[in-house]
Amino acid sequence: MTSFYGLLCLTAISIHLSCSFSQETNAFPAYSSFSCTVDTMEGVDSIEHRTVNVNGINMHIAEKGQGPVILFIHGFPELWYTWRHQILALASLGYRAVAPDLRGFGDTDAPSGSENYTSFQLVGDLIGLLDAVAADQDKVFVVGHDWGAIIAWHLCLFRPDRVKALINMSVAFSPRNPKRKPVESLRAGYGDDYYIVSFQEPGAAEAEIAQIGTERVIKEFFAYRTPGPLFLPKGKWFGHEPNTPISLPSWLSEEDVKFYAEKYEEKGFTGGLNYYRALDLTWELMAPWTRAKIKVPVKFIVGDLDLTYNAPGIKDYIHKGGFKRDVPLLEEVVVMEEVAHFLHEEKADEINKHIYDFFQKF
Ligand SMILES: *[C@@H]1O[C@H](CO)[C@@H](O)[C@H](O)[C@H]1NC(C)=O
Ligand SMILES: *[C@H]1O[C@H](CO)[C@@H](O)[C@H](O)[C@H]1NC(C)=O
């Protein structure tokens, strides 16, 4: 523990120094709290990048550090970049952080067709990745957020032999209901404007995004803090007039937004949207795993303002026994107060500590 906090102190000192150094050239002087992000950007430059061929696609990965591998799996609309704080912190604590751009995202290939985005291809990519970058490690640590949590769960279900322990953020488990397809259930529960339902029709969400503009869409998603379901009615996404300014949360800089926006501008959103469009196909193919339990040690972390935590029935499921029944090795559930969906960016230091505290036990 001592060395852990020591390292954090050192990190803090170097951040402070380079913050004051880079302030003069900060392109956004109005946002003084952004100065440390400029430094994070400098730290981010120390992260290494390469492309590996896995499961028939070229996958871009970001990595740093030596030691036991921690595989970081991002969500939507994110990229490897969402893990920048964790990559730097965990690499400095003796781990090898590996964060891919998932299939369909960023600098990784995006095969066409939503049928190419079921959990089987996605987990297949990650198994290929582990064989390529961690052939010497039978099992690795896994951290997932949002879609990445769902993929992480399926990785544990299909290949528990490859996972030492899992930290899952934001999205709580929903056991497979053999009687009803997920999109149908969501449509019945929330209607056609519920975001997952509205993402289904190929091209429709893409058209909305083109209308609003990529950068603005990124800002809207990251700034969303309503602790309730997300509805995206046609022509009225996010309910803002076109030119209303969107104020960014303190933990997200204009540079961060630009990073995401440039990659999404280049790649488009279809790859990410295909995850939602493949939900029912994944459900169909996963029939053999109905009522299967997760058999790896798990820590689950969620913010109390997260839309996922406020979905009907989820709190009861997480806190009243359902979750523990399906995930018998669930060791800890952490609910962070006043924190929303992108908790690992919003509360990076606390999340880094949670990750370290949990993984160092194994
Ligand atoms: C799925 O991906 C494969 C491999 O890239 C490709 O050959 C196939 O055409 C894709 N499916 C569809 C429906 O586009
Ligand atoms: C992690 O989140 C996924 C996503 O829904 C969920 O399926 C899983 O049960 C959660 N935790 C695990 C494996 O415990």
TrEMBL record:
<comment type="similarity">
    <text>Belongs to the AB hydrolase superfamily. Epoxide hydrolase family.</text>
</comment>
<dbReference type="GO" id="GO:0004301">
    <property type="term" value="F:epoxide hydrolase activity"/>
</dbReference>
<keyword id="KW-0732">Signal</keyword>
<dbReference type="InterPro" id="IPR029058">
    <property type="entry name" value="AB_hydrolase_fold"/>
</dbReference>
<dbReference type="Pfam" id="PF00561">
    <property type="entry name" value="Abhydrolase_1"/>
</dbReference>
<dbReference type="InterPro" id="IPR000639">
    <property type="entry name" value="Epox_hydrolase-like"/>
</dbReference>
<comment type="subunit">
    <text>Homodimer.</text>
</comment>
<keyword id="KW-0378">Hydrolase</keyword>
<protein>
    <recommendedName>
        <fullName>soluble epoxide hydrolase</fullName>
        <ecNumber>3.3.2.10</ecNumber>
    </recommendedName>
</protein>
<feature type="domain" description="AB hydrolase-1">
    <location>
        <begin position="68"/>
        <end position="178"/>
    </location>
</feature>
<comment type="pathway">
    <text>Secondary metabolite biosynthesis; terpenoid biosynthesis.</text>
</comment>
<comment type="function">
    <text>Epoxide hydrolase involved in the biosynthesis of cucurbitacin and mogroside tetracyclic triterpene natural products (e.g. siamenoside I and mogrosides IV, V and VI). Cucurbitacins have cytotoxic properties and exhibit deterrent taste as a defense barrier against herbivores. Mogrosides are nonsugar highly oxygenated compounds used as high-intensity zero-calorie sweeteners; they also possess pharmacological properties such as regulating immunity, lowering blood sugar and lipid levels, protecting the liver, and acting as antioxidants and antitumor agents.</text>
</comment>
<feature type="signal peptide">
    <location>
        <begin position="1"/>
        <end position="22"/>
    </location>
</feature>
<dbReference type="InterPro" id="IPR000073">
    <property type="entry name" value="AB_hydrolase_1"/>
</dbReference>
